[in-house]
Design a protein that fits this description.
Length: about 375
């Protein structure tokens, strides 16, 4: 363990480290069938990530006794362990990410809604039981996720401030718990689609896609955000040099609730919103907007990214707006962008750079026409 560790990653287990959902569902079905309850896949999805007693209480109602509840929970967990023992596998990217985290002085905890027995069985079977400085299980908390208790306890046991902890989660309740704990959250779409995980700060489809830079970037952004002093808004008069530029709040920014911050940064410079809409860009529009990049190695990925979730399109107006917006945004690659620019502060990598701004007056005209009709643009 690094001597003066200042940052931590707190791992959820089921659905992040190991793909155990199917075995949990089968174990629930077996235990509840005896009580005459048909536990469907939908029920399972609904209660995913919650603690046993909460699930049993909700499924069987208030009248159930504590003894009955314990009996069902024990039976469920026993059959889960016997199902999982011969089958459990690590999900892709877990080991590599753990290695790179410890190389970069992150310490790690495991915080799961599962009983300690399951955690031990899984971590030992997978050979990762010695990777964590601390393990928090269902027995350690009085309330499960979405209550933040489990993560706060983990941070406390590591002696790391919640604001310097990144939680890795796959469940909606887990992400809510992480945010309530004041932590950053990386979500992986192993269990739920992206649209359900938008509360997270960063969403990936597999842990193989996580870079150490993006995690460190998350922590840095947090610090910058807190230290940031809003500049006084300059309200400018209309002049003959008024220009319009198209700004897109890209999918990664929308997923991380940054639309307001980005629009705010531009407004702070006296640029005026004259048109605004939220839309899910389709492939055809994406290909027209990025036509200039057809044939480049990143083109296909760029189209996938810009069409992945809805975005906000804004027309800004101001004197020299086109060039000024490019300056406020920073250059394409966030790693190379000047400090204090939008991309340096919030961008993750050269593709996920949170914002688009037209690159010339000519392009701006074409791009605005793609996204807005003339009637949709307001003239003050
Ligand atoms: P710009 O957005 O700063 O004008 P462009 O070169 O026009 O940058 O590229 C359009 C978008 O394509 C970028 O904002 C970024 O999202 C993506 N992009 C550009 N270069 C790369 C690259 O080398 N790899 C992956 N994506 C890229
Ligand atoms: Mg461009």
């Amino acid at each position: 363990m690094p001597e003066n560790a200042t940052k931590a990653v707190i791992w959820d287990m089921d659905g992040v480290i190991a793909d155990t959902a199917l075995y949990h569902m089968q174990a629930w079905q077996k235990a509840l069938r005896k009580k005459g309850v048909d536990f469907t896949e939908e029920d399972f999805q609904k209660y995913f990530g919650q603690r046993n007693e909460e699930i049993i209480g909700k499924v069987l109602g208030e009248e159930i006794t504590k003894d009955e509840m314990d009996e069902i929970a024990i039976e469920k967990e026993e059959s889960f362990r016997s199902l999982v023992r011969p089958n459990v596998r690590l999900l892709p990217g877990v080991i590599d990410l753990m290695k790179v985290l410890s190389k970069n002085d992150f310490i790690m905890a495991l915080a799961s809604s599962t009983p300690m027995k399951n955690i031990q069985l899984l971590t030992q079977s997978l050979g990762i039981d010695r990777c964590f400085q601390s393990i928090i299980s269902a027995e350690d908390v009085t309330e499960g996720k979405p209550n933040p208790q489990v993560f706060l306890l983990a941070a406390e046991s590591l002696a790391i401030e919640p604001g310097n902890c990144i939680v890795i989660e796959d469940a909606v309740a887990g992400i809510t718990a992480a945010k309530k704990a004041g932590m950053l959250c990386l979500a992986v779409t192993n269990t739920h689609p992206r649209e359900r995980l938008v509360e997270a700060d960063l969403i990936v489809d597999t842990l193989e896609a996580v870079t150490i830079e993006s995690l460190i970037g998350l922590l840095n952004n947090r610090l910058k955000k807190e230290n940031r002093v809003y500049r006084e808004v300059v309200v400018r008069k209309r002049s003959l040099d008024m220009e319009r530029s198209l700004v897109l709040i890209k999918p990664d920014a929308m997923q991380r609730n940054l639309a307001g911050v980005i629009i705010g940064r531009l407004e702070e410079h006296g640029l005026k919103v004259v048109a605004l809409k939220m839309l899910h860009v389709d492939k055809a529009l994406a290909e027209r907007h990025y036509a200039i990049h057809i044939g480049k190695p990143f083109f296909e990925d760029l189209i996938k990214y810009i069409t992945s979730t809805p975005i906000v399109a804004v027309v800004f107006e101001g004197e020299g707006a086109v060039e000024e917006i490019r300056k406020i945004m920073g250059v394409t690659d966030p790693a190379k962008a000047d400090a204090g620019t939008i991309r340096a502060d919030f961008g993750t990598d050269i593709q996920k750079n949170v914002v688009h701004g037209s690159d010339s007056i000519e392009t701006a005209k074409k791009e605005i026409d793609l996204f807005f009709t003339p009637e949709e643009i307001y003239t003050y």
